[in-house]
Amino acid sequence: MRQSDTVARFGGDEFVVLLSELGSGLGEAHQQAATIAEKIRASLAEPYHLHQADPGGTPKRVEHHCSTSVGVALFGPGEPGQDEVFKAADAAMYRAKAAGRDAVRFNELGAS
User: Are 85 and 51 in contact (CB under 8 A)?
Assistant: First the structure.
């Protein structure tokens, strides 16, 4: 993540990442967003190590794995409102889940 980016919990297990300053053209913006989304996906795919005690009080280490389905909506200034952007990102996320999870998918609003 960059200092210019914003991350917020949207609800449940969904988060929103707002990226700005991705470049002047759609191709450059797509590439930068893809790079950032893949870094997020790969980082969250790393195993988490949790420490807890068993019923007898003996500490044990538990390894946890997580998959991430990332939906990205690209849009420019003056393009769709926030509802359309969230719907597009949500649809892309569900395509990532349908692809077997642990994937990144895009919707490009106003790509014409």
Answer: no
Q: Which stretch of DSSP H or E encloses residue 86?
A: helix 82-98
Enter the tokens of residue 64.
């946890």
Residue 30 lies in a domain: yes
Using 50 as the pLDDT threshold, list the residues of the chain that sit under it: 112
Task: Read off the CATH number of the domain in which 73 is found.
Answer: 3.30.70.270
Would you call 49 helix, strand, or coil by DSSP?
Answer: strand
Domain membership flag for residue 48: yes
Domain that holds residue 46: 6-108
Six token digits for residue 21: 């300053």
Structural domains of the chain, count: 1
- Write down the pTM of the prediction: 0.80
Contact 4, 20 (CB under 8 A): yes
CB within 8 Å of 13: residues ≥ 6 apart: none
Residue position matching structure tokens 């990532």:
96
Q: Residue 94 and residue 88: Cα distance in Å, rounded?
A: 10
